[in-house]
Each structure stands twice: as structure tokens, then as C-alpha cells.
């Protein structure tokens, strides 16, 4: 069983780092005024978990199945799904005369829906206010059309606090009898960046079979350079041997199947934490590396972008 499901929060109180959101929704339910909800924020921060916990609190386990429709909009993103599945579900009466009469539709990853599907959904939301509520979940609220946003109460989910993630992670590793050193836990938390789902998926994959978490295993699974590789890259980037630096970075990229974007992220973190580089050099490097990352995202050659990384360090060193 996937750890993300095995250890998913079951109650609203178990959802971590989103206390103000939880308290507000509980207040809505206590007053009998549950609105349409729009949850947005980074992945792995509890949006789906809170939506599911809310419907359990609202219905109890007895009435959940017949009164809740859960769809992943990234898989069913077109207008036909909205017209057929969603409209049919909210239009059908409940088979039970007991319990709440409202039906709830959970649309996960709704920012993947087409504009036409979102407009169709908006009309369904408008026409079913009396007997349906919609929980719309997304990473990027800007990809949700304004007409749909305005019909929901919006909640931003912040990245999970490192201390809570670490405590939760250590508890799970202990329950699963997985050995992990402090360096491995630090690396795993860095990989996750507040995304609990990603952290647990990587931890489970790396420890499968051996029951041990290692830094090298975590880096290989997540497709990023190891700390020692990043350290050596920084030494070469701050040195004068351009071709030696390029050959080393290209070897890491090819042999480890590591993208230039992950190399950039690792290098940027080292620049941020460096005490040897002054603030002006850091500023120059951050600006130029951000431009390179933007070029990578547009599909530019990764080999050319590696040359760009080396070049911006050469310019930064001259300024320093």
C-alpha cells in the first residue's frame, strides 16, 4: 500500500499547517453555511486530504459514497466529463432520506481543465446552489477562470512547515522500520520542499527492499546531483578551467540522467547558503541563472544551457 494513502490524514484536525483553513471550514459547517470551496497552493500540502476529511465530517462514513463524486480533472479535463458525469451526479436525488441532502463534487487538479469545461462547470455550479457544493482543488489559481473563482470561497494552502514534515516523516519511518541517517533525512526534506506526498513517495521507493534510506538513493530517485557532486561543481564553476567544468557537468547530466534544471536548483541552493560569495556576486548569479532556467523551460538545448551556467559564473567572478 502506498504510504501517501496509508498515512493520509483522516480527520480535519490531522491536516497539518493549515489550521486557519480548517477552523474556518468547521465554522461554516457548524452554522450550516458550507459554501463552494476553492483550495489552491503547492502540491502535497493537504488540499485533497482536507477536502476528503471535510466530506467525512459533513456526512459521516455512512453517506459519503452516494453523496460524493471525486474526479481528477487532469485525467477527465474536457467538457464532456463536466456535462455527463458532473451534471448527471448533481441532478440525481440521493437514495437515502437520512443525513444531509447536499451532494459534493471534488474536482482535483482543476487547473488542468480546459476553459470550455470550466465555463460549463460554472453554469452547473450556478444552477445547483440549493442541493450541491463544489470543492475545486488546484495548484495554480490563475488557471481557474474568474467567473468560477468568484463563486467559491478561496483558501491558499501554504507549504508545510519543515519541523512538522520532519516529525511526521520520522514517525512514519519508525513505523515502517526504515533506517535513515540525519544526512538522508535532510536530503529528503530538501527534495520535498514542503511537499509531503513527494517526500513519502521518494522515501518508500528508495527504502523498498533494503529498508534503508541513503543520500545517493534519494538523489538517484529524484534525479538530482548528490551534495558531493554539487560541491565539486561549485569548485569548478568558481575556478578557471572552463572545459573541465563543462565535461564534469555534462558527465553528471548524462550518466545520472539528471536534468539541467535540477543541476540549476542544486547550484542555486549552494549560492544562497555560501558565505564566501558577496551579495553583489550572488545577485548577478541569481538573475542570470533565472534567465537560464526560463530558457530550459522553453525547451532550449541543455548542453547550451550548461555553457550558459559556466559563462554566468565567469562574469560573476569578474565582478567579484
How does this structure look, described?
There is one protein chain. With 320 residues, this protein is an alpha/beta fold. The protein has helices at 3-6, 19-30, 47-59, 61-67, 79-91, 115-127, 146-149, 162-175, 182-192, 196-207, 215-222, 227-237, 242-255, 260-273, 279-297, 302-319; strands at 37-40, 68-72, 103-108, 132-138, 153-156, 179-180, 212-213. It has 3 domains: 3-156, Rossmann fold (3-Layer(aba) Sandwich); 162-222, Helicase, Ruva Protein, domain 3 (Orthogonal Bundle), CATH 1.10.8.60; 227-319, Zinc Finger, Delta Prime, domain 3. The strands form 2 sheets. The chain has a 5-stranded parallel sheet, sandwiched between helices. It has a two-stranded parallel sheet with strand order 6-7. The longest helix has 19 residues, at 279-297. The termini are far apart. The model has no long low-confidence stretch (mean pLDDT 89).
